[in-house]
Amino acid sequence: MMLNIQLYITGINYIYNYIKCSLGEHKTYFTNCRTVVSAVLFSTLLWFSLIFTMRLCLKQLLSYHGWMFEQHGKVSNTTKIWAMVRIFSGRQPLLYSYQGSLPNLPVPAVKDTVKRYLESARPLMSDSEYERMTTLAKEFESSLGNRLQWYLKLKAMWASNYVSDWWEEYVYLRGRGPIMVNSNYYGMDFLYVTPTPIQAARAGNTLHACLLYRRKLNREEIKPVILNVPLCAAQCERIFNTTRIPGEETDSLIHWQDSEYVAVFHRGRYFRLWLYHAGRMLSPREIEQQIQRIMDNPSPPVPGEAKLGALTAGDRIPWAQARKEFFSSGVNKRSLDCIEKAAFFVTLDDDEQGMRGDDPAGNLDRYAKSLLHGKCYDRWFDKSFTVVVYKNGKNGLSAEHSWADAPIMAHVWEYVMTTDSFQLGYTEEGHCKGDVASSLPPPTRLTWDIPAECQERIERSLAVAQALADDVDFHVLPIQEFGKGAIKKCKISPDAFIQIALQLAYYRNRGTFSLTYEASMTRLFREGRTETVRSCTSESCAFIRALEGGEVTTCRHLFRTAAEKHQHLYRMAMTGGGIDRHLFCLYIVSKYLGEESPFLNKVLSETWRLSTSQTPLQQVELFDFVNHPDYTTCGGGFGPVADDGYGVSYIIIGENMINLHISCKHSCPQTDSHKFGADIKKALEDLLELMSPEKPDPSKAELNHSKKSKKDL
């Protein structure tokens, strides 16, 4: 008994000591765990704090734009400190790395915008008109303007960009007229070279290059565009898989996450062409084979199919009504969905285009018109962009404007052109390189059941579009005698030089000055798009009057003053200090509130008779103008904005070439694209002669002569 009790007590002591020991070990374990967790949490918070601080610092640094306004070679201490932006930028940023750090577009003060507007309007108004406008402006500034500004600032507090969504909706999507010619734009192929004369082969390389760009885009491997500071890349998100859907009151933009096929138009028929097979991208040679299958397909278009695309070229309300009535169910809906959900649209054109034959200049003009509007039914103008491949191997693109601005598509097209020719290449026979899988299914023909009533509406839309297209007068003018190299010797900004030349040409062409629109960009800010530079200034008008009046002694000084003014306005527009987007948004707010403003009504009703835009060459490293000078891009263009005005797009190529794309309307007897092109070239030549470094400055010569005369006396 005593032995059992002793064994029991010994067992209890053993269990007690074991539990005590275990609790001690667990206590140590729990203490260690708590220490580790605390360290992890602290490190995580410290890391996120560091990232947040760096992003905040980067955002503050990106908000500084003083460096743009400093003279070359004179750098302030503030700008030197600002150079720290590179420390916070990272070594190999992805395409969207900077998006969260970009500053918001600032809302200018009403008094500043009104002051800049009156300054821009002065050379275009008589004394009485200017006095009347000044009165309206002062009334607006002191009363309604402040109230509208309050609402606009409220929007700017929560919106990523206080302009862009309204600009997209009210300028583009709510327009009820045709988007063809009035809104879309085009990009051309190489000017002198066609890499292959085989249409299917050119399509194979072009489509494959587009897919390569999209893959880089999806992986964010495209380098962000940096002009000392990064530019917003938000517009890149809708390059592919995007379409514009018509509505009776307003259109809408729809973007799909992915699409593995393109819609192809050939001789009045529509096809679905899959660009991926068994989980891989088709090679250029495989795409060429598939394109050839489409071209060899002998089936005719069904009634109403051939000209169906005219619905996208005509007025928007009839298209919206037809879409709702005839394409909302059944086979027509399935086929329309196939087009709208495609990565992009492809047209295999039966025409031959390019600068060729006995009339190269005339053929170049016809090439531009073809890309802008085609036959009015062989493009799908609602798609984000259409790749056009011609019978002789020439290609080009037509782009819808609402989803993004021209520099975005220009970046894509530069990559596609150079990848096509320099990376992918062709065989000696002109075919695409690579092998072909025997198991590829053929492209699918889209089917339609278009009733007679719908066919009548197609014909009506085609009539509207055809009348608009026939009225377009287009001229493409490659200037090869001089370029940026000659302009830089004059120590003048090339863009300012060309803009003043445009003012001089217009004055000689029409005998007066005109309100002038030059597109600038606001992509220094988050979701920024464009701003207007009002290129017709008091300074440029004073120079032109002096030049045309024979006042040679003051011309050089006046020209430099006008160029410096233009550069200042361009920089102001880029950094959020423009005029027109602010006034546009104030106008929208006034309409929401039901308020009428005579000042805003007057400003927003002004006609831009000279609408201009530069297409900058963004990826110069992709081209080799020294070893391959013939592989020169021709740029692109757009239609006239005003019925009695001109549209001018220009691109500066290398050091010795400027390409101009000039548009107007035949229906206006005062406009002629060829005459205006000649006037622009003559104006450029005259300005180069005036500002030539070899030519003595008359004003300095007169000053030296005056000093010498006084010395002699």
From TrEMBL:
GO molecular function list: carnitine O-palmitoyltransferase activity
InterPro entries per record: Carn_acyl_trans (IPR000542), CAT-like_dom_sf (IPR023213), Cho/carn_acyl_trans (IPR039551), Cho/carn_acyl_trans_2 (IPR042231)
Pfam families: Carn_acyltransf (PF00755)
Subcellular localization(s) per the UniProt record: Mitochondrion outer membrane
Catalyzed chemical reaction(s): (R)-carnitine + hexadecanoyl-CoA = O-hexadecanoyl-(R)-carnitine + CoA
Keywords from the named record: Acyltransferase, Fatty acid metabolism, Lipid metabolism, Membrane, Mitochondrion, Transferase, Transmembrane, Transmembrane helix, Transport
Membrane topology: Multi-pass membrane protein
Enzyme Commission identifier(s): 2.3.1.21
N-terminal signal peptide: none
Pathway: Lipid metabolism; fatty acid beta-oxidation
Active site annotation, chain numbering: H401 (proton acceptor)
Gene3D superfamilies noted in UniProt: Chloramphenicol acetyltransferase-like domain, Choline/Carnitine o-acyltransferase, domain 2
GO terms for cellular component: mitochondrial outer membrane
Residue ranges of domain Choline/carnitine acyltransferase in the record: 105-681
Major subcellular location class: mitochondrion
Segments passing through the bilayer: 36-58
One GO BP: fatty acid metabolic process
Domain of life: Eukaryota
Region feature (Disordered): 691-713
Composition bias, Basic and acidic residues: 692-713
PANTHER family in alphabetical order: CARNITINE O-ACYLTRANSFERASE, CARNITINE O-PALMITOYLTRANSFERASE
Protein family (similarity comment): Belongs to the carnitine/choline acetyltransferase family.
Protein name according to UniProt: carnitine O-palmitoyltransferase
Organism: Cyprinus carpio
Taxonomic path: Eukaryota, Metazoa, Chordata, Craniata, Vertebrata
